[in-house]
Structure formats: C-alpha cells, structure tokens
C-alpha cells in the first residue's frame, strides 16, 4: 500500500526561543483571509540546527523563516543562496525546493528599506546600527543601497564578525557630533521578556535630531523607544518590518522558480 501523502503545505519559524514571535499570528491571519485552509505555520524552537534537515524531510516543510540566533549559523546547511543573502551573510527565509534542497534568501533588508522609506522621515547621512548579527547586517546592507553610511556598534568591536565595528563609547561620541542621526537597534535587548532593558545606557542622549528605529515589536514601545520619544526623537518599532519580511517570504514560497535561483 502507498504511504499516505501529506497534501498540506507546512511553513514554520525556526529559532532558539520563540515566545516573543508574532509570525505565526501573521501567517494564520493571512491564510484565513485568503482561504488557504491547506496551509499551516508553526513555531519550531530548536536548541541547535543539528537536526534541521531531518526536521524538513519528516515535517514535509515547504519553507521556513529563521530567527535569533540562527540567521548566520544556517549558512553552511544551505544548498544555495541568493546574491543578497550572500552579500549580507545572513538568511532569514529558506525555500525548500525539489523536496529537500534548501535555498536561502534574505527578505529582512528589503523589508527594512521599504519600511524606513514608508515612514517618510528624511534620510540622514549617518546611521548607527547596534548589534553585529544577522539583522544588523541586513540593515547595514539596506542603508548602503539607500546611500546612507552606517556603522556597526558592538560590545566587542575588535573581535565581532563585522568589519569596522565601533564600541558603544565611540558610538556615543559619534552620535553627539552628528547633525542628524538614524539609530537602529538590531540587538534583542528590550525584547520580551527582557522588557526593562535598553541597549543604550544613556537615556538623556536622545534628541529631536535622532530617528530611532527599534527592530523589536514585542513590546512596543520598548524602553529604548520610550527614552528616545521622551527627548523628542522620532521613533519607529519593528512591526511594519515584520509584516513586510513575512509578505516577501510568502511571495518567494509561492514562486518556486524565483525561489530556486
Ligand atoms: P543575533 O544574530 O542574535 O544578533 C544580535 C546582536 O545583538 C549580536 O550580534 C550582538 O552583537 C548583539 N547583542 C546580543 N545580545 C546583546 C546584549 N545582551 N547586549 C547588547 N548587545 C547584544 O540576532 P538577530 O537575528 O540579528 O536579531 C536581532 C534582533 O532584531 C532580534 O530582537 C530580532 O527579533 C530583531 N529582528 C526583527 C525583525 C523585524 O522584522 N522586526 C527582523 C529581524 C530581526 P555584539 O555581540 O557585537 O554586541
């Protein structure tokens, strides 16, 4: 007898700890709106990526998103990568083609870029990007394409994996001298359940010269956003970016030939 084929289309988010994530909520609402009763989206917490390929095969996974802390760690497990993902060095969206071929894409950079432009805030000439992980790299790549010079800010600038990162103290000096500044939080600091923390230890530094974009969306506002808004800065949370990267990922999953590269 032939084994029963699973005709449902399974999608997922892979990360280590996913209690903060609203991705499942977004996808399930979209499936409902579009009448896609054969689709599911689940949150898959993995302590490591060791069993990833087996999970894809056993779960009949058609595509999945990748989040903290695996956007860089997943690279060696992929069969192919888009040019953008390769240039960024991080993947947040994987298409499974031909049953088991893993093709990595990065939709974070375009989602950030489109979200920033939709805010209508004039682009400053200088940007600070806190963090050196997958999200920070996607943001820096997006800013580069928009002609905005950016600088990574790291706790360990000498040994972190991105080039030319500066320390928090140096970033503080640079921010004070900038006539206008885009300040992006691409660290998990302040994200649920760590809601009483801010990645920037100087709450009085913010001013109306700053635009603060916090990639966190849960909670919103974050402590960082509250500090910034209290000093007159323009603030944005990461919810619009989340929606945009999810929609871009869905487009890829629906277009296997584009997704396969
Ligand atoms: P990641 O790969 O784990 O990198 C985070 C970076 O933040 C690290 O490289 C580290 O840089 C810094 N960091 C980590 N812990 C820190 C701490 N306790 N204090 C200060 N800095 C710390 O994570 P990611 O994938 O880049 O994601 C970062 C954040 O962006 C997450 O909160 C994620 O949910 C959010 N995000 C949101 C969206 C969206 O659509 N809204 C999209 C992507 C990501 P250093 O070690 O160099 O300091």
Short description:
This protein folds into two domains: 9-106 and 242-259, Rossmann fold, CATH 3.40.50.10860; 109-239, Rossmann fold, CATH 3.40.50.
3D architecture notes:
α4 crosses α5 and α4 crosses α8. A 6-stranded mixed β-sheet has the order 2-1-3-5-6-4, sandwiched between helices. A 5-stranded parallel β-sheet has the order 8-7-9-10-11, with helices on both faces. It folds into 2 domains: 116 residues, 3-Layer(aba) Sandwich (Rossmann fold); 131 residues, NAD(P)-binding Rossmann-like Domain (Rossmann fold), CATH 3.40.50.720. The chain has 9 helices and 11 strands. The site of NADP nicotinamide-adenine-dinucleotide phosphate (NAP) has 28 residues, from α5 and α8. The site of NADP nicotinamide-adenine-dinucleotide phosphate has 28 residues, from α5 and α8.
Chain-wise SSE layout:
Elements: E1 9-15, H1 23-33, E2 39-45, H2 52-59, E3 61-66, E4 80-81, H3 83-88, E5 93-97, E6 101-105, H4 108-119, E7 126-130, H5 134-145, E8 149-153, H6 168-177, E9 181-185, E10 210-214, H7 223-230, E11 234-236, H8 239-254, H9 256-260
Parallel strand pairs: 1-2, 1-3, 4-6, 7-8, 7-9, 9-10, 10-11
Antiparallel strand pairs: 3-5, 5-6
Bound molecules: NADP nicotinamide-adenine-dinucleotide phosphate (NAP).
In N-to-C order, the SSE pattern is: EHEHEEHEEHEHEHEEHEHH
Provide the low-confidence segments as ranges: none
Mean pLDDT across every amino acid position: 95
Query: Given the structure, what is the number of helices?
Result: 9
- SS-based class: alpha/beta
Helicity, in percent? 25-40%
**How many angstroms separate the termini?**
36 Å
* Major sheet characteristics: 6 strands, mixed
Topology-level CATH name of the largest domain = Rossmann fold
**Spatial order of the strands forming the largest sheet:** 2-1-3-5-6-4
CATH superfamily of the largest domain: NAD(P)-binding Rossmann-like Domain
Radius of gyration: 19 Å
% residues in beta strands:
15-25%
Ligand roster: NADP nicotinamide-adenine-dinucleotide phosphate
Q: How would the global form be characterised?
A: globular
The CATH architecture term of the largest domain is 3-Layer(aba) Sandwich
Give the C-level CATH assignment of the largest domain.
Answer: Alpha Beta
Total count of strands: 11
């Amino acid at each position: 007898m032939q084994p029963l084929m699973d005709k449902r289309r399974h999608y997922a988010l892979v990360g280590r700890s996913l209690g903060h994530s609203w991705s499942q909520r977004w996808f399930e609402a979209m499936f409902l709106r579009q009448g896609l009763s054969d689709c599911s989206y689940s949150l898959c917490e993995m302590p490591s990526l060791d069993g990833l390929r087996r999970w894809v095969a056993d779960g009949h996974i058609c595509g999945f998103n990748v989040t903290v802390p695996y956007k860089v760690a997943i690279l060696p497990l992929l069969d192919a990568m888009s040019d953008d993902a390769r240039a960024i060095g991080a993947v947040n969206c994987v298409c499974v083609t031909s049953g088991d071929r893993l093709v990595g894409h990065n939709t974070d950079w375009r989602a950030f870029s489109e979200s920033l432009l939709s805010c209508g805030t004039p682009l400053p000439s200088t940007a600070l990007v806190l963090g050196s992980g997958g999200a920070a790299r996607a943001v820096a790549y997006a800013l580069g394409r928009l002609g905005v010079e950016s600088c990574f800010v790291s706790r360990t600038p000498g040994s972190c994996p991105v080039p030319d990162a500066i320390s928090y103290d140096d970033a503080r000096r640079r921010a004070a001298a900038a006539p206008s500044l885009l300040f992006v939080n691409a660290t998990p600091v302040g994200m649920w359940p760590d809601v009483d923390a801010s990645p920037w230890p100087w709450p009085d530094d913010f001013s109306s010269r700053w635009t603060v974009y916090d990639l966190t969306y849960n909670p919103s506002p974050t402590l960082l956003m509250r500090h910034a808004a209290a000093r007159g800065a323009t603030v944005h949370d990461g919810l619009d970016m989340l929606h945009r990267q999810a929609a871009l990922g869905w487009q890829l999953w629906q277009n296997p030939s584009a997704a396969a590269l």
